[in-house]
From TrEMBL:
Protein name: DUF3810 domain-containing protein
Stretches assigned to coiled coil: 137-168
Spans traversing the lipid bilayer: 7-27, 47-76, 97-117
Keyword terms, alphabetized: Coiled coil, Membrane, Transmembrane, Transmembrane helix
Species per Swiss-Prot/TrEMBL record: Proteiniborus ethanoligenes
Taxonomic classification: Bacteria, Bacillati, Bacillota, Clostridia, Eubacteriales
């Protein structure tokens, strides 16, 4: 009977190559992925999973990650002890090795089916009809000027020291995030849909040591937010992870969608957070292209905006270290393995979408 059980479970190893074949086919057929998977299979999976796990007020994904890590650690220590004490036979070692390979195969295939194929869908620019042709320095500079004016204006309306805002808990902020998507969904139906509310990560401070502000967990379809970060970043982080919920896996596109959802949100804290996100990315791009123009425009920041940016920089400096560097390397490898060849640098390509939008809005 044991032998038969082993044979029955061994077939699960083929799930890994099956997943790899699906990825290979998807790379060559983004239109089919868009039609059949992203707007078909995944949409049903994502909405169903998100609403089911949304019943639970805390992040199931966070606890799954923690318990999985502890299980793997304990499992590895037990095997290591058996090897050192020579209390493991070749047959038992093979059984443990087989179990590990099966587990990896099942998890990888589940990731591909539950969400991973979204990396191979059509670019957002084609879906919503934005022309992301190469931009001139003048176009980039004009975009930055526009974003500075909008961000300064919104910052004047936002009193981060007001009593009302301090009483607005993170939970309440996350519960308001859907309002932006109600608006953006009317503009672009592909972003519409009723999904679960973003969830605060219990160990948010520990998450900051990895340099991560939020994470989408595809096995539960949960948008998880690090609520230890400065408040001005929380609304845009929540809407970013909600973009992943809607099947937009690429980080640069999720950033742009987050900006859109915040821009169209009825509440000023979300609007400011979205514009701040766009401004930071655009000014970083300008710094790389024309450092003199960067410092020239930097002088246009309002005192309140400068104060927020300084606070954000000081916050992240507290968490710099080997954990953050290692996390960046892991994240970079993950992005490259999922069709984002620029890795972490792909975040900068959000500016192409911002410029394309700016062109459309300022056509003569």
């Amino acid at each position: 009977m044991k032998k038969k059980k082993g044979i029955n479970s061994l077939w699960l190893v083929v799930l890994a190559p099956m997943g790899a074949i699906l990825v290979s086919l998807s790379l060559k057929n983004p239109h089919l992925v868009e039609k059949l998977y992203s707007n078909g299979i995944y949409r049903y999976i994502g909405i169903f999973l998100s609403n089911v796990t949304g019943i639970v007020p805390f992040s199931l994904g966070e606890f799954i990650v923690i318990f999985t890590f502890l299980f793997i650690l304990i499992y590895a220590i037990k095997i290591l002890i058996k090897i050192i004490t020579r209390h493991i036979s070749l047959q038992n070692f093979y059984r443990h090795f087989k179990n590990v390979i099966i587990a990896i195969s099942v998890v990888y295939f589940a990731f591909i089916i539950l969400w991973g194929l979204n990396y191979y869908r059509l670019p957002l620019s084609k879906i919503i009809g934005l022309d992301t042709k190469p931009a001139s320095i003048n176009e980039l500079k004009s975009l930055c000027i526009n974003l500075i004016e909008e961000t300064n204006s919104l910052r004047k309306e936002l009193d981060l020291n007001s009593q009302n805002l301090n009483k607005d808990t993170y939970s309440q902020t996350l519960k308001r995030a859907y309002k932006g998507y109600d608006k953006v969904g009317q503009l672009y139906p592909v972003l519409d849909g009723k999904y679960g509310t973003p969830k605060a990560v219990l160990f948010s401070k520990g998450m900051s040591y990895t340099g991560i502000t939020g994470i989408y967990f595809p096995f539960t379809a949960e948008a998880n937010v690090n609520v230890h970060i400065p408040y001005v970043s929380i609304p845009s982080t929540a809407t970013h992870e909600m973009a992943h919920q809607r099947g937009f896996a690429r980080e640069d596109e999720a950033n742009y969608i987050a900006y859109l959802a915040c821009k169209l949100h009825p509440d000023v804290d979300f609007q400011y957070s979205g514009y701040l996100l766009a401004l930071i990315h655009s000014m970083n791009a300008l710094y790389s292209s024309d450092i003199e123009a960067y410092y020239e425009l930097n002088n246009r920041y309002s005192p309140e905006l400068k104060k927020d940016l300084i606070a954000m920089n000081e916050y992240w400096k507290r968490f710099e270290g080997p954990i953050e560097k290692a996390s960046n390397k892991v994240n970079n490898t993950y992005l490259k393995s999922n069709n984002q060849k620029d890795g972490i640098k792909s975040y900068g390509r959000m500016v192409d979408l911002l410029i394309a939008e700016y062109r459309e809005e300022h056509k003569k």
